[in-house]
Amino acid sequence: MSGLSTIAFRVALLMALGLHATEADIAVVTVNQTVTSTVPAHFLSVNMDWHLYDEEWPAWGTASVLNIDFTNERFIKLTTALAPALWRIGGSEGDMVVYAASSNDSICANTSFCLNLTRWTQIDEFADTTGLQIVFGLNGMYGRTTPTTPLDTSNIAWFLAQLAAQSSSALYGFELGNELTTKADPTTIGHDYIAVRALIDKYWPDASSRPKLIGPDLNPDQPYLATFLSIANQTLDAVTYHLYIGYGLNPNLTQQLRDPAFLDQDWQTGLPLAATVAQHAPHAELWVGESAAAWHSGQANTTDAFISSLWYIDQSSQLAAHGHKAFCRQTLVGGWYGLLNWTNFEPNPDYFTALLFKRLMGGRVLPTSVAASSPQLRAYAQCSGLTSGGVTVAIINLSDSVAFTTAFEGFDVGPKRNEYALTADGWNALTMQLKGMPLSCIVNAFQPSAACRHCFLRRCPTSSRCWWHLAAHSSSNFLARLRL
To answer: Mind listing the pLDDT tens digit of every residue in the chain (484 residues)?
Structure first.
C-alpha cells in the first residue's frame, strides 16, 4: 500500500439500503493504511450438497451433486463469473456416499448415494470449464459402527486410486466427514485423518501436484477441535469449521439479521477456534467451510433475499479481517440459501454480492472504523481488486430510517470514485437494484466476458431492459452522500 495517499479512492457501496429514509446523520469512516491480513483470490468460495430431490421440498429438488445438470449453459456461465473459487462438495449425506465404477456395482445396491466414475468425470469437467477447484468431502462414516470404531478406508482407497490415475487439474483437496462431533470420537477421527493422509501421499507421490487435506469440517466445538488437532495437526493443510448464526425456522430471522450485535456473533464464535488452530496447527490455513445466514436449509424469502446480503458482505469482510483464507458459501445452488435458484439458475441477490466482492475487494485487508451516532452503519476496506488500484470500501447501513452522509479519513481522496449502490424495495425482496436498476434480467443479459471482468465498470452486454453504466463521481469535498 505504498503511495496510498496519491491513488484514486474507489468507494464500493455494496450494501446501500434504499428503504425510505426519513432522517439524516453524519458518519466518519477511517481507513488505516497498514495491511493487517491478506486473502487469496479464491477466498470467497461455494458449496454444493447431496440432498435428495424431495428432502425439505421444495428447497433442494435437482440441486444435488448427483442429479444437477452440469451442462446447462446458464449454470456454467454464471458459475464461471465467480471464479477463481473453491467448490466444496460435502454435507451430511456425504457420509452416506459410496464410490464405484458403475451404479450397478454391488456396493451401490442399498444406498441412494452412489457416486460412479462417469458422474465424477462430469463433476470434474464442470469444475475445469468454470474455473472452480474441487474440495471433495470423503465419507467419514464408512464402516464405522460406534464413535470409537476406526474408519474403513477401503472404498476411499479405491476411489483415490481412480482419481489419481485421471490426473485432474481441478482437484484442490479432500475433506473427511461432515460435522462428526456427535458421531465420532475426536481421537479416533484424528487417526482416521492420518490414514487418509497416507493414502493421498501414496497415490500422489509428487508433492507439487498432491491434493490438500482439509478438516475436520465441524460445528464450533473448541475442546473437540483441540483434541483432534493434538493427533492430526501435521496431516492438515487447512482447518475448517462451519458457521451459522441464524436458524431457518426462526420467524424473527429478518429482524435478527439487522441487529449489529447478532452479526458480530459470527466472527466472535470463531475466535476460540482460531486461537486453537494457532496453537496446535500454526502452519495450517483457517477456513469457514460452510456458512449461510441460517442453517436448516435457510429460510425462503430471507436467506435468498436482499436482507441476506447484509449478512453476506459483513461476514465476508469480518472473516477476511480475522485471518481466514477461505469462506465457502452454503450453497452455490440448493436450499433456500443458494446463490442461484435451483429451478432455473436465476441469481438471487447474494449472487451479485459475491460477484461485486470478488471483483472489487482485493487481497489486502485494511483496518476500518466508523464514528457515527448509530451502530447500524458498518464499513470495511480492502485494497482494490481492480487493476487500476485504489481502495474499495464496503458500507452497510442496517437502518431503514436513517441516511448517512459519510466522510472518509485516513488518506487523501483522489479525484474520482465509482459507487455501487445496491438497494431493494424491501428487506425480503428477491430482486436487487444497482443504482436503481433492477438486476432480475441478469438471466438473459449477463454474459461473463472480458468486458465484464471488472464488474459493472463497463456497460455489460444487454438484452431487454438491463443496462449498467456507472460514471465516476466527483469527490472533491471528500463526502459521499448515501441516500439510504
So the answer is: 333 332 233 443 333 433 445 556 777 888 888 999 999 999 999 999 999 998 889 999 999 999 999 999 999 999 999 999 999 999 989 999 999 999 999 999 989 999 999 999 999 999 999 999 999 999 999 999 999 999 999 999 999 999 999 988 899 999 999 999 999 999 999 999 999 999 999 999 999 999 999 999 999 999 999 999 999 999 999 999 999 999 999 999 999 999 999 999 888 899 999 999 999 999 999 999 999 999 999 999 999 999 999 899 999 999 999 999 999 999 999 999 999 999 999 999 999 989 888 988 889 999 998 887 778 888 898 988 776 677 888 888 888 777 777 777 776 655 566 777 788 888 999 988 877 777 764 444 443 332 223 233 222 222 111 122 222 222 222 223 222 2
Cell triple for 476: 472533491
Contacts of 446 (CB under 8 A, 6+ apart): 77, 78, 81, 452, 460, 461, 466
The closest of 321, 289, 395 to 39, measured between CA atoms, is 321
Q: Which helix (H) or strand (E) holds 416?
A: strand 416-417
